[in-house]
Design goal:
By secondary structure, the protein is mainly α. It contains nine helices and no strands.
């Protein structure tokens, strides 16, 4: 148990919280991690499209590796090397290389998804993730915003575009996540609002051409 607590402290850059409200904020923050939210999203998209469980595993595995795994692995390695403060990359000055690695890996993932003839909604989502990663990577050089909230808002926008009103109730998670990030001292209210407002229009700009072409939605 002590080893796990030490590992968690090393990765998050802080000691585990003990109060109930602290634990709740940590749970919300962790569950809505920018590394996990895209995986929830693509699994929801893949499930009705996959012909069987094997196909579902292959497609979701490709997303997990190229759009999440490579970037996450890079961050974890750099945390243990002392070059990044924590797994959430809280310090703005440390975000450039993680974005570069994640966007590069995502671009490779898009090509592979196209090559293995994955469904167009999945290729479109992959392309959107890569383009948004590039946009936010450039933005974070000049201004820090909440990537937790931005990624969640982007994924929710994509789900609403793809599934319509059925996805709208999930918007309720955004203010809860914003509270968790502010409560934990990771962001200011302005930084979470900026993430929530910037992500949806950028997501629509990347996905609407696919939608208008009839390949998505």
């Amino acid at each position: 148990m002590q080893l796990l607590m030490h590992l968690a402290t090393r990765l998050t850059g802080e000691a585990p919280p003990w109060s109930g409200i602290d634990r709740l904020a940590l749970l919300v923050s962790g569950a809505g991690s920018p590394f996990l939210t895209p995986l929830y999203t693509v699994c929801a998209v893949i499930w009705p499209l996959a012909a069987d469980h094997r196909q579902f595993i292959v497609w979701s595995g490709m997303i997990a590796i190229f759009f999440i795994g490579v970037g996450l692995a890079y961050v974890i390695v750099q945390v243990f090397r002392g070059r990044i403060s924590d797994v959430h990359v809280s310090q703005q000055s440390q975000r450039h290389m993680p974005f570069t690695v994640a966007v590069s890996s995502s671009a490779v993932g898009v090509v592979i998804l196209w090559w293995i003839d994955a469904p167009w909604p999945l290729v479109a989502l992959g392309s959107s993730f890569a383009i948004l990663g590039l946009c936010f990577g450039v933005l974070t050089i000049y201004k820090k915003i909440s990537m937790h909230v931005a990624v969640s808002a982007s994924c929710l926008t994509a789900l609403i575009l793809l599934f319509g009103w059925a996805a709208v109730p999930f918007i309720g998670f955004l203010p809860i996540q914003a509270w968790a990030r502010i409560y934990r001292g990771r962001h200011t209210p302005g930084q979470v609002v900026a993430g929530a407002l910037l992500a949806p229009p950028l997501t629509l700009l990347t996905l609407i051409p696919w939608h208008l072409s009839g390949l998505v939605g």
